[in-house]
Amino acid sequence: MVWMSVIPYFLAFYLTKAAVLAVYLQLFPVHMKTHRMVLYAVMAYVAGAFISSMGLHLFICLPIKTNW
Predict the structure, then answer these.
(1) Are 42 and 14 in contact (CB under 8 A)?
(2) Is there a contact between 68 and 3 (Cβ–Cβ < 8 Å)?
(3) pLDDT tens digits, one per residue of 5-15
(4) Per-residue pLDDT tens over the stretch 31-47
(5) For residue 31, what is the DSSP state?
(6) What values do phi and psi take at 30, rounded to 5?
(7) How much helix, strand and coil, in percent to the nearest 5, is found in the chain?
(8) Is 40 left (phi over 0), alpha (psi -120 to 50) or beta?
(9) What pTM was estimated for this model as a whole?
(10) Which residues are within 8 A (CB) of 8 and not within 5 positions of it... i.e. 6 or more apart?
(11) Distance, CA of 57 to CA of 7 (rounded, Å)
């Protein structure tokens, strides 16, 4: 139960970040190319951090008793 409860926590944490980044995407107009490129880089970083944290949590080889 403890092991599986981390997955919704990470999902909610990163979806909150994605919602804020989506608001910023609507705030910056298309002609602000530098700001948009930085925003895309931050979005890629957040997506990579989500994938790496979920992958680390799912595929780490620790004994089950360490969760207790």
Answers:
(1) no
(2) no
(3) 788 989 999 99
(4) 999 999 999 999 999 99
(5) T
(6) -65, -30
(7) 85, 0, 15
(8) alpha
(9) 0.79
(10) none
(11) 8
Q: How far is CA 60 from CA 15, 26, 45, 51, 52, in A?
A: 23, 37, 21, 14, 11
Separation CA 68–CA 1 (nearest Å): 10
What is the distance between the terminal CA atoms of the chain, rounded to a whole angstrom?
A: 10
Per-residue confidence (pLDDT) for residue 66, from 0 to 100: 67
Calculated CA dihedral for residues 56, 47, 12, 64, nearest 10 degrees:
-10
The answer to whether 11 touches 53, Cβ cutoff 8 Å, is no
The residue type of 25 is L
On the 0-12 / 13-18 / 19+ scale of CB atoms within 10 A, 36 is middle
Residue positions counted in the chain: 68
Helix (H, G, I), strand (E, B) or coil at 29: coil
